[in-house]
Amino acid sequence: MTSTRSKWGSRLAVLYFTLATAALVWPIYPWLGNRVEPRLLGLPFSLVWVLAVIGSNFAVLVVLYRLRLIDDHEDSPDLDPGEGGDP
Amino acid sequence: MKPLAAGVVFAYLLIALIVGVVAGRRGRGGTDDFVAGERAFGPLVMYFVVGATIFSAYALLGTPQRIVAKGSDAFYVLAYGAVGLVPLFFYGARVRRIGAREGFVTQAEMFAARFESPAVSVLMGAATLVAFVPYLVIQLKGAGLVMHAVTGWPEQLGAALVYGVVLIYVLAGGARGVGWTNVIQGIVMLAAVWVIGIWLPTTLYGSVGAMFDRVVVEHPEYLTLPGPEAKTPVTRYSSEILMSILGFAMWPHMFMKCFTARSARLVQLSVVFYPSFLFFILPLMFLGYVAVLSGGPADDSVLLWLVDLVQGEAAHPLLFAFVAFAILAASMSTGDALLHAGGSIMVRDVLLPLESRPLGRALRRALGRSQQPLREDDLGQTRAIRVVVIVLALVSWVLLGNSGGISIVDLLLLAYSIPIQFLPVVMFGLYWSRANGVGARAGLIAGLTTVVGLFVIQKTAPGLAATLNPLELEIGLIGLVVNTLAMVIFSLAGPRPHAALLRRFEL
Q1: For residue B8, is pLDDT > 80?
Q2: Claim to verify: residue B179 and residue B61 sit in the same structural domain
Q3: Considering just the CA atoms, what is the radius of gyration of chain B in Å?
Q4: Is B399 within a domain?
Q5: What is the 3-state secondary structure (H, E, C) of B56-75?
Q6: B464 and B346 together in one domain
Q7: Partner-chain residue, chosen from A14, A46, A86, that has the shortest CB–CB distance to B223
Q8: Count: domains in chain B
Q9: B435-458 pLDDT per residue, tens
Q10: Its domain of life (chain A) (predicted)?
């Protein structure tokens, strides 16, 4: 059941989350995120940056979940065991 | 004794007790039910189980404390939380399916089957228990701290009372008891932390934004790295985040949550909604900055100290009760999950595989249980889990009192480097068809020996440790590298796993 669509979806997703992680650590975080200005709603930018990554990850996860891109098949309890093991 | 807070705290303990016990009565009994709640958690329970378990007393007390001590270094909790559970989104559904099909309820059980090696299970189980104890002690300490602030009792007495309640509902309710109490605990924590996190800065400075204006003027070094007195280099901060991300989803009690969900989709859904729990950390950061401005203490009493800033205001007793309640909920919701998982892991992952060994058989005869092995005795297993849960709680409680001997902070260092050693076994086990039992054993032994060895050297011969580890890399990371190399090399040297086995694991 591994369609091309979900294969590419998984790859893009892994790539996205790798980038999201990179944005939180050296060298990207000190380069772009680690500063006080500009402030948003009074919060320092260093904090806004981290919150923005969380928000963005949340949005991506919602999309992945809704589109059923990652590992979308479900075992029903009455299914023959071994049925789930598509190569 | 603070009457209102004491009333709230005791009422809460009573409710947690009743809900936990009643929820537990609704199941069929039996080990499978006790450990995995018949895999019947719906979305609501699942959401709070994941969230409440992760947000421990350590997060609640430690986050504002970290701001006071190290400034924006405390953001690392948000940073690793942003990605930490994401791996579960990719493999959680598959783990849930395989678990349901094969009847697995623990992480080690699953990988012992994948690698056809009971030794893998014993190694993982034993290492897990070592990691759990310090983590439990921290939770007990949180509970003791609150009870001391509320009633004036010594920490150990308060912790004993709270964990007495936890023990009762864990023992009576099993997974289901833990799940339902987590729902209450999660709601309380979310509400309490947001209320005080907004209310306190607003009362003292006018608004959260105005409070940050003051921080920018008076203590700007607390808002960016490397923080006050340049204590946190960005590289150190980054390596901590990466370590936490890699280890986060490997904690066995987290991994076990895959098995308790009602469906594979639900495992993914709980990952999707996990970031909403991170927004609950945010008000704790605000509170940390209030403490920075008002010169609060840089230890774990800072949260309760903050509440006392508004002593004399009419709302103070209510606020205090609310915060005490939240800390207690945080401590209990993590502590109960650790106790429950610890008991299940000790019995199913360590005792059962050892039982069939000659030594295990001899021991069983000595205990007068020669007729029926524990593996076939479902009630006996549940009973054994209960005994282990009690022992775990007792050991942690004793360690809480005996702070002279071993430092809890030191033990935590060891605790956090252990789950990350499961990463190669889990990842290669799920994604690399060539990985086999020889490799898994070699990797685990190499990784765990490295971690424990380096830890002991660090404590006994700091000079030697500095020569061995000149860059002061985290010991978990060094262990992980050794572990991965060993697993790859030995897997390639060992036999190829047969096709039927791989098919069971959807490889």
Answers
A1: yes
A2: yes
A3: 23
A4: no
A5: CHHHHHHHHHHHHHHHHHHH
A6: no
A7: A46
A8: 2
A9: 999 999 999 999 999 999 998 898
A10: Bacteria
CA B276, A8, B244, B435 torsion-angle sign: positive
Q: What is the pTM of this model?
A: 0.86
- Angle between helical axes of B282-293 and B208-218 (0-180°, round to 10): 50
**CA dist list (Å): B89 to B22, B92, B266:** 32, 6, 10
ipTM exceeding the 0.90 mark? no
Q: What's B15's domain CATH number?
A: 1.20.1730.10
Q: Do B308 and B425 fall within a single domain?
A: no
> Which sign, positive or negative, has the C-alpha torsion B277, B224, B135, B113?
positive
Residue B240 Cα distances to A25, B80, B355, angstroms = 10, 9, 39
User: Looking at the domain assignment, is residue A71 inside a domain?
Assistant: no
Are B262 and B40 spatial neighbours (Cβ–Cβ below 8 Å)? Answer: yes
Are B115 and B188 within one domain? yes
Q: Please check whether residue A62 is in contact with residue B270, taking contact to mean a CB–CB distance below 8 angstroms.
A: no
Q: Which range marks the domain in which residue A23 is found?
A: 4-66
- Which chain A residues are closer than 8 Å to B275 by Cβ? 54-55, 57-58, 61
Expressed as residue numbers, the domain containing B195 is 3-355
Domain-ending residue, one of B355, B380, B397: B355
The reply to whether B418 and B351 lie within a common domain is no
How far is the C-alpha of B103 from the C-alpha of B97, rounded, in Å? 10
pLDDT of residue B482: 96
- Look up residue B148 and give its amino acid: H
Q: pLDDT digits over B288-317, tens only?
A: 999 999 988 888 888 889 988 888 788 888
d(CA B507, CA B499): 9
Which of B320, B338, B355 delimits the end of a domain? B355
Residues of B (62-91) whose Cβ lies below 8 Å from A: 72, 75, 78-83, 86, 89-91
Into how many domains does chain A fold? Answer: 1
Same domain, B335 and B470: no
Kindly state whether A48 is in contact with chain B, defined as any CB-CB distance less than 8 angstroms: no
Helix B234-248 to helix A4-24 angle, to the nearest 10 degrees? 140
